[in-house]
Specification:
heterodimer, A: alpha/beta, four-stranded antiparallel sheet, 30% helix, 25% strand, globular, disordered C terminus, B: alpha/beta, eight-stranded mixed sheet, 12 strands
């Protein structure tokens, strides 16, 4: 794949397996199996997938947080930070150190487990940001304060302990920690899953705002399709370690070309609609012994014999839209494009 | 109509801390609702964290005693301070389903052991054949079978299957009422609808009433007959699910509906919430107001001078 100047991240044929070799028993979990994709500058790329689909392993690779027993078996994941290239696969500890927080940053899931409960927020900010920013005392303080203001956090959160803040505030603090160095690439791993609906929307809006402000790219991971509908510019669907479909958000919702995506979208309940929603039978496959051929075939309503033996390639079916399905032409969008949602008074 | 469950002016106050720095939390304030015995329904309690929805559920299950007011089930007051036999009789009729099936089950204990002990306890069965029959019967109702479940540990099943097994366990004593506290929030997207559809089917074919606690308005709209919306311990709106959610009246209900992420304009990136709406909703918070009936059958809390 050629490196486009507009791409910040290029993942090519990436395979990352968990390999365990204990007491003569060899076990291999193919958590990331042959993923090829790119993330452009200044976009929000949504990754959807259910638990144990390998999405967390995938973003661990992207975040250069690869620990044994996980290993990159093949392929590359290359970043292009302002012309400076950074390859996750053969980066040294020092190189990772140099890009972390400054260029490549991470918003984690549980804000309570990210923040040290016995350390004031201000101290945590120092731990995270002081060194990468490399600023002197006053300049550093000013920078942090400006940043907090942008996140609509009062300046005195710096002297608070995590337990004194509400869930939404804590999540805003973790977003603040991840973005204070103005990174070019932010990975957000289910940052709003534990939040209530009102706070969730607020936090999502904040991430979007910060992203547009800084012009950085965000990889946003969640299994909640309605979040993707409102956050992402493009969405990629991961099923059993493989990227099965990728496309612009609108197309993914109204013209999906993979039966799994079509199901995910169709099963979303909506206010104002009580028609029976289909449920998908079967269970997500085990990554230790995935089914042969297309990994979705045991649960797929469209499966034919070919699907059981041959792995479908990820082919381009529309501009910017790729899918890995032998029968993509027969995938019916299960939801018709709706009227623009009524604006409530 | 004979009431199955009656909650009358129930309040719950928690007192935290000691003599110094005493703190009082009113988790539920003056809540009333009635479920009919003749017409099974899915009754939804909607609220954010801290709204008191779980406390209300715990009181209905008899795990907490109300500070004031009374909860009665089939004419009897609900309380855990009763004799063992009476408590067991009550537990056989009101069964809980918990949020996270992976936490509800001990990972070192086989699933069928839970089903078996429930059958032993509530159905007073002794013969293995009878026990197996009761277990299989309950599992069939949720689309599983004893052959699939027997001898398996929680980690060997998917989240959806496990949650279904948890519902099967609750169904063993043939309870007329299930209390399900966020039963789908930990279940994967592709399996979520199978649980929600199951609850709907239990109501329609087995006549089980379900108290469904959630913060997800979309599934609430999809399955429930009636609902209440709670804000900081107070019921702010109550009525037919469609009537209320199609056109919410209380400012907080409107804020909740406006915060639901819709997929209808996917890709448009609409994430702004009207700040006026937030202000109105937080203005209502903590004020007593009173519930009034509306012509369309709903009840709404209104405030003097608004």
């Amino acid at each position: 794949m050629t490196q486009d100047r507009n791409d910040i991240l290029t993942v090519d044929g990436l395979k990352a397996y968990y390999q365990m070799d204990y007491f003569g028993v060899h076990r291999e979990v193919r958590a990331v199996d042959d993923i090829t994709m790119t993330v452009r500058r200044n976009e929000v790329y949504g990754i959807a997938g259910e638990s144990s689909s390998g999405k967390t392993s995938f973003i661990k690779v992207l975040a250069a947080a690869i620990r044994p027993p996980m290993r990159i078996v093949a392929g590359t994941a290359k970043y292009d930070f302002k012309g400076k290239s950074f390859d996750v696969a053969d980066a040294t500890e020092a190189q990772i150190e140099a890009v972390r927080w400054k260029h490549l940053s991470y918003i984690m899931q549980g804000s309570m487990s990210v923040l040290n409960p016995v350390r004031r927020i201000g101290k945590t900010f120092e731990d995270f940001a002081k060194r990468p920013l490399g600023l002197s005392g006053t300049a550093y303080k000013e920078r942090v304060q400006n940043h907090l203001e942008r996140l609509k956090l009062p300046a005195d959160v710096l002297s608070a302990y995590p337990h004194e803040l509400s869930g939404g505030m804590r999540q805003r603090v973790t977003i603040g920690l991840a973005t204070v160095c103005h990174p070019e690439f932010v990975i957000a791993d289910e940052p709003t899953t534990a939040l209530d609906v009102v706070v969730q929307k607020e936090v999502l809006g904040l991430i979007r705002e910060i992203q547009q402000d800084m012009g950085s790219s965000v990889v946003f991971v969640t299994h909640d399709m309605s979040v993707h509908a409102n956050m992402a510019d493009r969405v990629g669907i991961i099923y059993a370690g493989r990227l099965v479909e990728e496309g612009p958000t609108r197309d993914m919702f109204f013209a999906p070309k993979h039966p799994y995506t079509a199901h995910l979208v169709a099963s979303l309940p909506r206010i104002g609609d009580t028609t029976q929603r289909p449920a998908l039978e079967g269970r997500p496959p085990s990554l230790a012994e995935p089914p042969a051929g297309c990994r979705f075939h045991p649960r797929c309503p469209l499966a034919i014999d070919k699907c059981k033996t041959d792995v479908p390639p990820l082919e381009t079916v529309a501009p910017d839209h790729r899918t890995a399905c032998w029968r993509w032409r027969d995938v019916e969008p299960l939801v018709a494009p709706q009227r623009v949602s009524e604006v409530m008074a | 109509m004979t009431p199955l469950l009656e909650v009358r002016n129930v309040s719950k106050r928690f007192v935290m801390g000691g003599v110094f720095g005493r703190k009082v939390v009113d988790a539920v304030q003056d809540a009333s609702l009635t479920l009919s015995a003749e017409k099974p329904e899915i009754f939804t309690i909607i609220g954010e964290s801290g709204s008191g929805k779980t406390t209300l559920a715990r009181m209905i299950l008899g795990l907490e005693l109300p500070t004031s007011g009374e909860i009665s089930f089939a004419g009897k007051t609900v309380s855990h301070r009763v004799g063992r036999q009476e408590r067991l009789d009550f537990m056989a009729k009101v069964q809980p389903v918990f949020q996270n099936p992976f936490e509800a089950f001990n990972p070192l204990k086989r699933i069928d052991r839970y089903l078996e002990s429930t059958a032993r306890q509530f159905l007073k069965l002794k013969q293995q054949d009878d026990l197996d029959g009761a277990m299989d019967g309950a599992l069939q109702k949720v689309g599983l079978s004893l052959a699939e479940v027997k001898g398996r540990y929680p980690h060997e099943m998917s989240g959806g299957q496990l949650q279904r097994a948890a519902i099967a366990r609750a169904l063993i004593p043939n309870p007329p009422l299930l209390v399900a506290d966020e039963p789908v929030s930990m279940v994967d997207a592709s399996l979520r609808m199978s649980i929600v559809n199951l609850l709907r089917e239990l109501r329609d074919s087995l006549g089980v009433s379900v108290i469904y606690i959630t913060h997800d308005l979309a599934t609430a709209y999809y399955i429930s007959n009636r609902l209440i919306i709670m804000q900081r311990g107070r019921i702010v709106e109550m009525g037919d699910a469609r009537t209320v959610l199609d056109n919410p009246e209380h400012p907080y209900s409107r804020l909740l509906k406006a915060s639901v992420l819709s997929t209808e304009d996917a890709g448009a990136g609409k994430l702004a919430t009207d700040p006026g709406m937030v202000a109105l909703a937080s203005d209502a918070m903590g004020r007593p107001g009173r519930l009034v009936d509306r012509a369309d059958g709903r009840m709404v809390r209104i405030y003097e001078g608004v």
